[in-house]
Amino acid sequence: MSSLSSETESIDISGIASSVEDAIFTRHSIRDYLSKPVEDSVLQELFSKSLRAPSWKNSQPWKVHVVSGPKRDRMAELLQERAKQSETPVPDTIWPTGFPADAKRRMFDLGMKIYGAAGIERKDKEARDKFMLRNFEFFGAPTAVFITTEFELNFYIALDIGCFLNTIMLLARSYGLGTVPQAALSAFPEVVRKELSLAESEKVVCGLSLGYPKPDSVLNKFHTPREEVSDIVKFYK
């Protein structure tokens, strides 16, 4: 049975965020969704508003592909099949492999806490592999989002797309929606391009699962910890 330890922060993610501050403090990655579809009108509003995200010289280097219904189901099937054939990702951009020691500590700690909330033992590789495959079924979310670009991939394009992605996630909270940003959805870009009939010039940068969170899910209540402000932020006068 999954559970949260006394050392793990838990938060209720049901309801709608009524302010920017509320959205910031209640947003976290959701990995367990209701099957309830997100209304077309909500999706239209959400992505229309998200286009106000900042970008270098208003370049707006993103393209957005919102996949729901039968198309979403087929995409999940294809991505899972591809992941089972080979666990080695072939993304359009290089994923980072080296991290400072403090980042490694946070990443390891996060993984252990997520597995704990999911009821998965650390040594149970089969269960961990199955959980990883859930990335490719969008953790049950009824809507999958793929963000692509035809720009040359570099640090500043990544900054712009990061701003855009965060804008989507915070706005989603104002509709009572949950999200989880996923590098995993860029692992096999050839599948995405073929299924969505995209040009080879469109590079798949990342993905996002979107939907209504299961309110009774222990996994959804897990709130990722952050460092103390005194350890990260320095003030100068």
Automatic annotation (TrEMBL):
Listed CDD domains: PnbA_NfnB-like
Alphabetical UniProt keywords: Flavoprotein, FMN, Oxidoreductase
Alphabetical list of Pfam families matching this protein: Nitroreductase (PF00881)
Domain of life of the native organism: Bacteria
Keyword Endoplasmic reticulum part of the UniProt annotation: no
PANTHER family from the UniProt entry: IODOTYROSINE DEIODINASE 1, NADPH NITROREDUCTASE
Name of the protein described by the UniProt record: Nitroreductase
Organism field: Leptospira neocaledonica
Higher taxonomy: Bacteria, Pseudomonadati, Spirochaetota, Spirochaetia, Leptospirales
